[in-house]
Amino acid sequence: MAYMPLDKSKFYLDKSTMTKIHDLSQPWGVDTPLWPFPGARQDLCFPRGQYLERFHKRTMTYTGTLHAATHMDAPNHVLHEEEVDRERYGYTFAELPLEHCVGTGVILDLTWLYDRFEEKWNAAGGDPAKMGEIWYEIKPEDVDAACKKDGLEIRPNDWVVMNTGFHRYWRKNNDKYFNYYPGMGPDVAKYLLFEKKIKGISGTWGATDAPLWHMPLKEQMPWLWTNYTKATGKDPDKEYPDYEPCHRLFMQHGCITVENAGGDIDEVTGKRMIIAAFPFRCEMADGGFVRLVAWEEGSF
User: Fold this and answer.
1) Which residues contact 257 (CB under 8 A, 6 or more apart)?
2) CATH placement of domain 17-27+65-295
3) Per-residue pLDDT tens for 230-249?
């Protein structure tokens, strides 16, 4: 097999004339942080089948969850088929309507929530018994305030991406990232769906629902149940009496959901952009990895 020496004199593509694409995705590999369900979790595995040093070709297979790093959920992840208008909105990952996966949208600046959390965490010294109400559920008024701050408007059929600043913890402090991120509850989900009429939602969070919306929390995330009860003296199942209501609300009504946004998101925060993330066409998948991207309107 002949080698191909690199000859840069033959490069012809002029990158300076190309539209800048901003990558809002997190990288993934063998040490990708995984949602902290109880019990053993399998890391992402990439065994090689062929090697460059022998075959002059590299091939590998992938074994692991499809719900890791920046990924999109499908309705069959959380809903029974009878709960979904399959013909209108699809059910499996392959059936998601592609026109819902790209469009205009806004990247909202909610990074003050990161500053708020850091202040409370540091004041408590990381001791749950001293934290108090350190968890935060994003409300409709927070969305409106973020829009007003940067002169943005959420329009029908928009995408909304929320930058809470928590992507700064990705792979640096996964405990903070997954257990304390500011997230959504049904109030803001219904506001975005039925008043703003959006078609896509993402954010710098570990899940579409805030961490405490995983009832019964003592079963689903027992360490978080312990920390919350120590911090507040409250029963989380009474304060957050449902399991992933935002997942089900968004997907039942055709709104695309992408978890674990990050990457270059700070470059486009506070702006209106074109936003896109396309699912691969796997008939059985209930979700999968996507490249969440954004670019300036009218640049193509």
Assistant:
1) 72, 73, 200, 201, 202, 208, 247, 250, 251
2) 3.50.30.50
3) 999 999 999 999 999 999 99
